[in-house]
Amino acid sequence: MKNLRALVVAAVLGLTQAATAQQADLSYFLPKEVQYNKDVPTPKELLGYNVGEWHVSHDQLAMYMRIMAEASDRMTITEYGRTHENRPLYLLTVTSPENLKNIETIKANHKKLTNPSESGSVNIKDMPAVVWMGYSVHGNEPSGSNASLLAVYHLAAAQGPEIEKLLKETVILIDPSINPDGLNRFASWVNTHRGKNLVTDNNSAEFDEVWPRGRTNHYWFDLNRDWLPLQHPESKGRLAKFHEWKPNVLTDHHEMGTNATFFFQPGIPSRNNPLTPENNFKLTQKMGGYHAKALDKIGSFYYTEESYDDFYYGKGSTYPDVNGSVGILFEQASSRGHAQESVNGVLSFPFTIRNQFTTTLSTLEAAQAMREELLTHQRDFYKNALNEAKKAPVKAYVFGSEQDKAKAYHLAEIIKQHQIEVYRPKEAFKINNTTYTPENAYIIPTEQPQHRLIEAMFEKRTTFQDSLFYDISAWTFPLAFDLEHAALSSKNFKSSQLGQKVEQLTFPAGEVVGGKSDYAYVFEWHGYYAPRALNNLMERGIVTRVATDKFTNGANKQFDYGSILVPVAGQPVNAEELHKTLQEVASKNGITVHAMATGLMPQGIKLGSPMMLSLQQPKVMMLIGDGVNSYDIGEVWHLLDNRFDMKPTLVKTNNFNRIGLNKYNVIVMADGNYNSISKDKLRSWVQQGGTVIGMGEAAKWLADNGIGNITFKKDEEETKARKPYADMDNTEGAQVIGGAIFETRLDLTHPLAYGYTDAQMPIFRSNTLFMERSKSPYANPVMYTSNPLMAGYVSKPNLEKVKNSAAVDVSALGAGKVIAMPDNPNFRAFWYGTNKLFLNSIFFGQIISGSSARAEE
């Protein structure tokens, strides 16, 4: 043991403690039968307060973990990433000192279990089990991260043969804060509103944190839904470590409503994903016995096999299940502060921490006792998966895009992070009237250890055992990306079709074709990053125009609707500087810019045509704050700021009525309630030429307030037969569209569809807002088809309502436009396929003809 005491003096730095009636010293949390090394400093000695007395801030948590790892010979610490706010993400490796000395060998041997060609030779009798402890992916569910203080102290200081045996037989990985930005936001709120004497009245401001609250990360994303999409640095770094270790068990510590008790998995059996083997459920159930015993011992109430499910693989407790691990969800009733009244009496923060710590220990006990079972399960999982792949009808999946290589690149990027092998085609081949080439396509053979995960990412499931889902029911990735794709059977796929294995992905090259021009340049709108390229130019004051019809240059290159014209004359820079700028922009955004020597096109419109419309740079206001769905508006913010280099202004709804709107030409209203803003002020602004984009309930709000001429279908009154009260939740829940994928048809000539080349577009829907078709034949550029369900669950009544309904409505209001989208085109940042529909609304709403839009009646 290193000299911990010397480090304590430097760490505390004058921190003080505040005595309260709710203090709980270590004896409240720790098992009574365990002796602890007095040379190991307690959390109070490092932090200056007892665990649970204050909410630990992330900087304090990080300091504590670094000191403990530096001082203890049982643990090491690794930084696996940085959050959007530049906070470090840590993973501690805890095991016996002897194991630590050989940790790389242990890791390498353990990973062999996931390789069927090697796993048969592995001796699991002497192999440690690997347990991953993940705490507080939701920042305002802090009992997990605060329990990690106790977990690390216990593992560093506990003495005796039991802890020595545990450390010898397990490798414990501790992620003390999966969401540092959210945790810090919440800790700051509740600590700021805590009095010397704790107030338990649930009307207190301490329990009513301000919008957007601490649940989410910097861009207001739920990181517990990002295990599959991998759109954030927290998830990318964590997943790399997950696959580096391939743990046998992963715990995911959450909180739920204050009036609840404690939940541990398994969840509802009928809602397990069918790709998860039955043995996973049995192991989860067996581990539940250990949790029940431990919670019984301290007198805590709990439940299991209710409420929650294991269907969506993008959650922390479910992703392990499709990777040969066992994911365990813990849900603790939340004090949402330091102590709060509940139906079960006053719920204290220390009590919530104790339950999380108790089930941390019960997980370790179960993993140690079930070590060989868990290791065997992992080995068998991958062997069986490979055998299933050999018998499966689908031998490979192919996807790609000739026109948008960047979008295909990003899907391949996600897939590779899941340890799935990706290849280029050896040579061009055609299937379903689409040609896939080595330059524009990727092939995923299904005969590999990650077979089940591949199926989970590509399948289009429409039949289910249960009609209720805790999260979404479909997430088919090639549909989300709106890419050409196909499932290849043994009839149209041979392993000889596999070309180069993709070891390192390279972002598609962009270039200026034709050298420097003294006349003009043109680039098409097909590329995913074409909007960023346009905005990059606009930021530099470069004048641009958009083609509202097709044309062909002298080299027989046809340019589609939405192509961007950059004249050389009349720019703020000379021809040399403009060429250099376009080279830089083309390279950054993976687009091809064509130099034009003349404006006289052999076919189609000419470059000086009145159908080449001038563009203004979008000046975007995003409404945020109370009433607004923070997830949906966060997705907009992330898209514009993080991905497209735009600078939207975030305006709180309670400030809208008092500020001037003349700075902005686009207002984005995500799903939410906007009754606090002046409808007259917004209507006047639109009439003067602004574009307002309303999504989800915001679109309904615009319709209800006469801003635009939008009509939604009304719920039909029906005579309901008498039904059992006990079935009410299930019966009503089955009418919810929790998240499914539907087919729409685009008008490819409409400005909102610029950049799309296929009239069929998959769209994600997670609500029951159904928009009527417009009386104008030009106002609905996106319509649901007559047979729209592509993947996921929808009830028969709702399916009938979706059929042939409008997915987008464009209304003219004075000189401005009202664009209504009941669905979310930016869902969880991985719906790349409909991002352009939203971006087109921002960039091209200004050019939509008023006579083509549905005029206000």
Automatic annotation (TrEMBL):
Signal peptide: 1-21
Gene3D superfamilies found in the cross-reference section: Zn peptidases
Ranges for domain Peptidase M14: 54-353
Cofactor(s) demanded: Zn(2+)
SUPFAM superfamilies: Class I glutamine amidotransferase-like, Zn-dependent exopeptidases
InterPro entries tied to this protein: Class_I_gatase-like, Peptidase_M14
Family listed: Belongs to the peptidase M14 family.
Protein name, UniProt field: M14 family metallopeptidase
